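Need a sequence for this fold. Nothing fancy.
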């Protein structure tokens, strides 16, 4: 299958994983700045890793309800191309972050059932992209990176007002089906290309991208 689906590999922590994502053909790599995540990096660690990212591959910083102090540190140290806001940020906060840092913002929205779909429209005219993820299973769970899918039929045939990306429980085995069902132009994966939480498997990264080609 020939495909132009753009891929983001998130939660990279080593130069080897960055190289595997770039060589496989990923369009984006994600650095997680959420301390509770097994994939968390400090701004200094992300700065060191960013040197290994070839030009043409966008570096995305993932944050969860981050305050300006953390964002200021990241902005000072890490040459990012996009911010992914994966918490309960409001449209007002998204607009504020976008203006303050001068970077495109991708807002993550968690979906569990049809009632959540209206949230997707709340960020039109504010965010640059929408990331559609599964809603976390419980209040204490990580807000993402749980390897959980939602019912993709909920967004099949949807008309989108913004560029968007599908996430949540994607793997080399199911990503082609997810794209066929939803028409997703872009996909994001973290735990589906890992051998353990926070440990990327280089062959799974390649298999994930190959599954769309
Ligand atoms: O990856 C994380 O640790 C993470 C932490 C906090 C918020 C989001 C996180 N990851 C994002 O979650 C989705 C789905 O991940 P998975 O493929 O189901 O593991 C994805 O967008 C990641 O960028």
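Here you go.
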């Amino acid at each position: 299958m020939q495909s132009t689906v753009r891929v983001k590999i998130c939660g990279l922590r080593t130069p080897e994983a960055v190289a595997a994502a770039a060589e496989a053909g990923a369009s984006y790599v994600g650095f997680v700045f959420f301390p509770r995540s097994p994939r968390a990096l400090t701004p200094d660690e992300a700065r060191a890793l960013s040197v290994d990212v070839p030009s043409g591959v966008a570096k995305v910083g993932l944050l969860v309800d981050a305050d300006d102090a953390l964002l200021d540190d990241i902005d000072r140290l890490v040459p990012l191309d996009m911010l992914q806001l994966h918490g309960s940020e409001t449209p007002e906060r998204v607009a504020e972050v976008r203006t303050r840092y001068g970077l495109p913002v991708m807002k993550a929205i968690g979906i569990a059932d049809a009632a959540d779909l209206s949230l997707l429209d709340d960020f039109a005219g504010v965010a640059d992209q929408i990331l559609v993820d599964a809603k976390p299973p419980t209040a204490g769970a990580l807000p993402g990176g749980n390897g959980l899918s939602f019912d993709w039929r909920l967004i099949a045939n949807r008309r989108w007002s913004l560029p968007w990306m599908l996430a949540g429980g994607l793997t080399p085995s199911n990503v082609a089906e997810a794209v066929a069902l939803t028409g997703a132009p872009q996909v994001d994966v973290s735990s589906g290309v890992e051998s353990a939480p926070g440990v990327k498997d280089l062959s799974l990264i390649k298999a994930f991208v190959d599954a769309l080609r």
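For context: The domain at 6-210 is CATH 3.20.20.70 (TIM Barrel).
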